[in-house]
Design brief:
single chain; 183 residues; mainly alpha; 73% helix; globular
Amino acid sequence: MITASKKKRENIAEYLLYMWQIEDIIRAYNLDIDRIEADIINKYEGLEAQQRKDMKDWYESLIDMMRREGKEKTGHLQLNANTLHDLENLHRRLLNDPKFAQYAAEYYNALPLIVELRSKAGENKKDEIETCFDALYGLLMLRLQQKEISAETQEASRRISKFLALLAAYYKKDYNNELEFSE
């Protein structure tokens, strides 16, 4: 909760990847708040009683959402899907505005990778931005499992990360009403 709110303000891409990880952690604990409290919440040092309660309430609300939305086993919460949708919309607006040529250049640099990833998805094709996030989340999972990552995969993730970092920076500007589009 503390990390999520900070990431949401500072870097929407990191926030979204973090929230996907939280969804998976909740699933790993079989949506059991008592286990999450014992193994995660109580391990945070320096939290006051109210902060612990707020964190438990946050996890409980996510568990409740996962149950109501049928996301106990797979998928992403609607609040995360909405964030992704907002990023997709901003992506299209940036591409359609000649004022953001640098953004378009980063996108076209990553596009062959996105096309390749989407072609491997078969019937499960997703929007381009979600495909990028899926790739980075998969890489994060490989790193957490301490699996070997090829140089080609590392380079692909670097290009996708650079593209998403730029999108995240524009998202922050847009959120703060600092982003001006051409008429």
